Amino acid sequence: MSIPEPMTPNDCDLRGLPFMQLDVVRLIDSDLFALSTGEEFKAAVALWCKSWLQVPAASLPDDDRVLAHLSAAGSRWKKVKSLALRGWIKCADGRLYHPTVAEKALHAWKARTAQRERAAKRWQKKDEDTGNATASENDMPRHSDGTSHGNALERERERESKKKETLTSFVPPAEPSASEVEPAETVAETLPARPSPPDARTALFQLGLKAVRGLTGKSEAQSRSLIGKWLKACGDDASILNRVILDAADLRPAEPVAWIEAAVGQHSGRSPRDAERTRNKAAWLEGEMLEGF
């Protein structure tokens, strides 16, 4: 009998995506639910969840010592192993895969890669608008929280809607055409004076401050200190930092401070080596699993 190929791509990495779909009908109707004890069922579900955060996702190492740890069964692993591993299949890469978990993982991986492609296009467009002809997808921070409710399309529409609402607070209203302008005397008589839109620096320390506090959970004083440091790195250009914070509010990365610093580094003229070092730090901080057992 031939050994099957791995059920998910070798770069399928869902760390940072805490949501895993659970098909309750299939679970309740399964042999595992009918045959397992509470301890066996607990170990089985623990392995499903742990495999979600392995690389490739939906896989486990074929090692009893590691499986005893991941299942939380410890010294009782041999007693629960048979039913805890029900449905798992050893594939050509030597790892164990669960077809149902792999099905859900592939769906989530497709959503994550699509989101990264959309984010890359937005960054590329911004670089083209500013005349940066050497920008590429690899120059942008790539780690984000991902899809928290399992429906990538719906979450994307929600993020775009929120971003548009935020942008309206930063962008002043369009000027009317010459044909639409009424004499100043008429306007003064019929319309009350309205306040001018805030400049970029005012918007940064009002709306931008709120966004940073929401992303990082830090106090107002700590958030102001971060904004001051980032603003200095941007050459005191508040409009650049406003755009970076808006992107962070849109993508909601797992490590927002490291993400923003990486993005600021691209605009501040730091060397590619420094920017890459910051991005690598953000990628390391996002990992939530101990690997290499």
TrEMBL record:
Coiled coil: none
Pfam families: DUF1376
Stretches with biased composition (Basic and acidic residues): 117-129, 139-166
Composition bias type Low complexity, residue spans: 176-185
Annotated region described as Disordered, given as residue ranges: 117-199
Name of protein: DUF1376 domain-containing protein
UniProt organism field: Gluconobacter albidus
Lineage, opening ranks: Bacteria, Pseudomonadati, Pseudomonadota, Alphaproteobacteria, Acetobacterales
